[in-house]
Write a structure and sequence with these properties.
The chain is an alpha+beta fold. 13% of the residues lie in helices and 21% in strands. It contains five helices and twelve strands. The chain has a twelve-stranded antiparallel beta barrel. β10 and β11 form a beta hairpin. The relative contact order is 0.10.
């Protein structure tokens, strides 16, 4: 016991040792204490490094760097102004050209515009959302193959309503003016808008037989159908100079014609395609005058089957007596070619001018084709 106390006193550190120095370990004195072993030869003891630190490596260590990278040679030039702001918004005053990640900040005491400054806008590829509110038919999203631009509206339609606008100058004075029409579907939504293009002299001198061009426009005021009617007669006494109407969609591309056939008792027409082949036939009544009733023109196939009709509808006593602003209805098969549907619309206008267009507020209805 006295031997162990003397050994502890000899090998222990003084009481005033540094707090970071390791605690007493008898193995540092060369003895492992009771049951201990002497330290391994050639290896430093485990634990903290010696008070003097480790010396330089025996092999000299890694050599110093041979030069290294030099200083930068100038760097990138500063920006020359920055990107312009988004369309429709200018950067606020006294603010840098580059917007912050959240966009330009609003001016003091003001609210930012909806979507932030410089918000991107998507291109308009469909009808405007207010089209339904204005009473216009929505445009189909996909246009079928071989369908002229603007005629995609007719792909889902089997009935059209044609309403002529009342012209007050013509109603009170009898002076013939250019006619205007609104074309609607069966739901009452506007599909097209038609305007006559003719000269004042031809309207006054030729009356209902006058030649004219008619522009049929869509919701965007684009001309999708163009009608041309040359000057001709409509009496059976002149079989070589009967009525004819050409239909173009678009302008410059003929899609079909409507030609009057010679007859004595009833009006008859042939509906032809662009190649001149007869596709449908139209046959009217012996008398085109009626009171409180409709006048029907049947649409027939080449075999004689009825597939549609063009109807002059009764529009009211006052409207019928004092104006020539008529109402028409057109029905045809749903799967009919859209080009022939456009020709059928042209046939409606031709029938209107031949039988229901007044001259000086005087009726021209007569039996037969005399």
């Amino acid at each position: 016991m006295n031997y162990m106390a003397d050994l502890k006193t000899t090998c222990s550190y003084p009481a005033t040792a540094h707090p970071l120095q390791p605690a007493f370990n008898p193995s540092y004195c060369g003895y492992g204490g009771p049951g201990g072993y002497p330290p391994s030869q050639g290896y430093p003891p485990s634990g903290y490094p010696p008070p003097g630190g480790y010396g330089p490596p025996q092999g000299g260590g890694y050599p110093p760097a041979q030069g290294g990278y030099g200083p930068p040679q100038g760097g990138y030039p500063p920006p020359q102004g920055g990107y312009p702001p988004g369309p429709g918004f200018a950067p606020p005053p006294n603010q840098a050209a580059y917007p912050s990640p959240g966009g330009y900040q609003p001016a003091p005491n003001s609210y930012p515009p909806p979507g932030g400054y410089g918000a991107p806008t998507a291109p308009i590829s469909t009808q405007p959302t207010s089209a339904a509110q204005d009473g216009w038919m929505s445009s189909p999203q996909v246009r079928p193959v071989n369908c002229p631009p603007g005629l995609e509206y007719l792909t889902t339609i089997d009935q059209l309503l044609v309403h002529q606008k009342v012209e007050l100058l013509e109603a009170f004075t009898g002076f013939e003016t250019q006619n205007k029409f609104t074309v609607k579907n069966s739901l009452g939504q506007k599909v097209f808008y038609a305007m006559e293009d003719s000269g004042c002299l031809t309207r006054c001198c030729c009356g209902p037989w006058r030649p004219f061009d008619m522009k049929i426009l869509d919701n965007f005021r684009n001309e999708v159908i163009h009608l041309y009617r040359p000057l001709a007669c409509d009496s059976c006494c002149f079989p070589c100079c009967l009525q004819r109407l050409e239909v173009y969609a678009p302008l410059g591309t003929l899609v079909g014609t409507v030609e009057q056939e010679w007859s004595i008792l009833t009006p008859q027409y042939s509906v032809k395609n662009a190649a001149g082949d007869t596709v449908l036939r139209i046959e009217g009544p012996f008398c085109t005058f009626t009171i409180c009733g409709d006048v029907e023109f049947k649409v027939l196939t080449l075999e004689g089957a009825v597939v549609g009709k063009i109807t002059k509808q009764w529009s009211g006593l006052l409207r019928e007596m004092f104006t020539d602003a008529d109402y028409f209805g057109i029905t045809f098969p749903m799967d009919l070619d859209v080009k022939i549907k456009a020709v059928m619309l042209g046939a409606c206008f031709l029938i209107d001018y031949m039988f229901f267009e007044k001259k000086g507020n005087n009726e021209r209805d007569r039996p037969g084709m005399f």
